[in-house]
Amino acid sequence: MTNEWCGWREATERALYGPDDGFYTRPGGPGPAGHFRTSVHVSGLYAGAVATLLRRVDSALGHPDELALVDVGAGRGELLAGVLAVLPGEVAARVRPCAVERAARPRGLDPRIEWRGELPAPGSVTGLLFANEWLDNVPVDVVETDADGVLRRVLVRADGTERLGGPVDGADAEWLRRWWAPPPGPDAAGGTAPGVLPPGLRAEIGRPRDEAWARAVRTLRAGLAVAADYAHERGDRPPFGTLTGFRDGREVSPVPDGSCDITAHVALDACAGPSAERLTQREALHALGVDGRRPPLALAATDPSGYVRALSSAGSAAELTDPAGLGGFGWLLEPVGGACAGLLTAGGA
């Protein structure tokens, strides 16, 4: 890693995806599961829910001879392996699983899974594209208001030291005007003045994520694209940004030297296309049959082992759907073609 000044987007790209020493691409690294738990790692119920969604897509598309399941930001292929394990044989025989991941293919992965470092070609697949906690790792630039309330790019070195750079302009400034709603600064009378920004506000420019998601959706000829991620809405963006790091299961300062994950919440409302639907993960998983209700106590008397299994499953489901945790994640559903619209509504289910 070099220690020159650059924007957070460039620094994060090197830190996460550098060919030799990137956090995700370093040879022999443990992958995401070695540093934090995503929904995929919490329970097989998550893979089961994705399998249920894939079957709905399959039915909506009329059971095509070849059904794609594209996992973007696939980690070590855990989600694809879990889905393949629970699909009925007739569906599994037609599924073409594809992992999109910049790290090398892990050893021992199911040979049915295609492993590639970039998205498929536009319009080349029919089926379900699923991106679990991918967009939060698409690098973005960070901005901060200076003492005069002017938005400036934040520059950073590999050791995490920051300073303010030049003012934000062009397409990035336009993105902030449209999608960022900062609190107003003080006026001369001690009140607040619309259009005046207080110093020290921070935001992440989500434009690269909008573009990345649009490219992912375009890979589908027909079907459904889903992104599940940490998210916030325009009217509720955190005023000091969300950039952070993770290492060994703990949140740490984001230092772009390849030693930790670097992530920031996603403006899914900005990513959404005109036909998109947005749900919380709690709503989405409930629609796919996952909930955290405890099994009836009577089951403990008639089938003690079954009761213990059901209780464990309910605990995992509760964690996945907890509105204060994973259940509060945002799901962005983008149908391509009319057949896959509304698959998580009562009618679509």
Question: What is the structure about, briefly put?
Answer:
With 349 residues, the chain is of the alpha+beta class. It has eleven helices and 17 strands.
Overview of the structural elements:
- With 349 residues, the protein is an alpha+beta fold.
- 29% of the residues lie in helices and 23% in strands.
- The protein contains 11 helices and 17 strands.
- The strands form 4 sheets. The protein has a 7-stranded mixed sheet. Strands 1, 6, 7, 8 and 11 form a 5-stranded antiparallel sheet that branches. Strands 14-13-15 form a 3-stranded antiparallel sheet.
- A hairpin with a 2-residue loop joins β13 (244-247) and β14 (250-252).
- α3 crosses α4.
- The longest helix has 18 residues, at 304-321.
- The model has no long low-confidence stretch (mean pLDDT 90).
Write a concise keyword list for the protein shown above:
349 residues, 7-stranded mixed β-sheet, globular
Write the layout of secondary structure elements.
Elements: E1 6-7, H1 8-17, H2 39-42, H3 44-60, E2 67-72, H4 78-86, H5 89-92, E3 95-100, E4 114-116, E5 125-132, E6 142-145, E7 151-156, E8 162-167, H6 170-179, E9 185-186, E10 192-193, E11 202-204, H7 207-218, E12 220-229, E13 244-247, E14 250-252, E15 261-263, H8 268-271, E16 277-280, H9 281-287, H10 298-302, H11 304-321, E17 330-336
Parallel strand pairs: 2-3, 2-5, 3-4, 5-12
Antiparallel strand pairs: 1-7, 6-7, 6-11, 7-8, 9-10, 12-17, 13-14, 13-15, 16-17
Helix pairs in contact: 3-4
